[in-house]
Amino acid sequence: MNAKLLSNLGISEKAAEIYIAALASGTASVQELAKKTNIKRPTAYSYIEELLKEGLLEKAPLGKREYYRASNPRLLEARAEQTAAAIKKAIPELEMLHATMVGRPSISILEGEKGLRQVYKEMESANSLCFWSNLETVEKQFQDVFEKLANTINKKQIRTREIISNTPEAQKSSKKYAALAGRNYSAHIASVDGISNDSAIYGNIIALFRLHQNNLFVIRIEDASIAQTMKALFEMAWKGSDGFIN
């Protein structure tokens, strides 16, 4: 029997060696246990005390001398089960601590039309908005959201900048948006192709939408440092693109 296996249950390795020796001996003195384990007798006493406290060893006096007897090994099984049960009970709290640890970004994936509308609704409380999108796709999929957010931008005077894909359809949608959002909205035309969805930065939040086909998703990331980096990239793209609506 490998004493290291028992040490996984929280018993020190030397104490485990004495327990195994006691199991094999039936009833034994300190001297006998020390000899079988090659542990010095004074040191063996401390490990025997450890085993007594754990309930894995019990005293068995014979006359004036003190002997020791190992407890039933099934106690180890019960001990392991109790430990597993305690860990299982603690897991929800530990997961909560892990989820809220300092520096961990809050990341969620919202599915379907309901999830997307929830994020667009959240944007109505933003102080400023930065988009890079194919605005024609947004208008086509969510015309009511398209109009409501634009009206809110106008009403609350939310500064909004948007880099749109370089297509006639996106430019047409941008003009419609500007008519609703008013002077708080400005747009540039992307200098590269490839923008086919909607993406936004507001506060410490980045929202990345998938608006194609029937599988609608939005990845919402909330983290100050990530948002700051994305804002810097947006600023570079903004400065490197041509103005469309100012």
Sheet with most strands: strand arrangement: 4-10-9-8-5-6-7-11
Q: According to CATH, what is the class of the largest domain? A: Alpha Beta
Q: What is the mean predicted local confidence, pLDDT?
A: 88
The CATH topology assignment of the largest domain is Endonuclease, Chain A
Termini separation: 80 Å
**Total individual domains:** 2
By CATH, the superfamily of the largest domain comes out as: Endonuclease Chain A
> Which structural category fits the helices and strands?
alpha+beta
| Helical run tally | 10
Rg, please? 34 Å
Proportion of strand residues: 15-25%
The CATH architecture of the largest domain comes to 2-Layer Sandwich
The biggest sheet, with number of strands, parallel, antiparallel or mixed sense and barrel status, is: 8 strands, mixed
Task: Return residue spans where pLDDT drops below 50 for at least 5 consecutive residues.
Answer: none
Backbone shape? rod-shaped
Summarize the structure.
This protein has 246 residues and is an alpha+beta fold. The chain is 52% helix and 21% strand.
Write a structural description.
The protein is an alpha+beta fold. The protein has 2 domains: 3-95, Winged helix-like DNA-binding domain superfamily/Winged helix DNA-binding domain (Arc Repressor Mutant, subunit A), CATH 1.10.10; 106-245, Endonuclease, Chain A, CATH 3.30.870. 52% of the residues lie in helices and 21% in strands. It is built from 10 helices and 11 strands. It has helices spanning 3-7, 13-25, 30-37, 41-54, 74-99, 112-123, 135-141, 143-156, 168-181, 224-239; strands spanning 27-28, 57-59, 68-70, 106-111, 128-133, 159-164, 185-189, 198-202, 205-210, 217-222, 242-245. Strands 4-10-9-8-5-6-7-11 form an 8-stranded mixed β-sheet, sandwiched between helices. A 3-stranded antiparallel β-sheet has the order 1-3-2. Helix 2 packs across helix 4, helix 7 (135-141) packs across helix 8 and helix 7 (135-141) packs across helix 9. The termini are far apart.
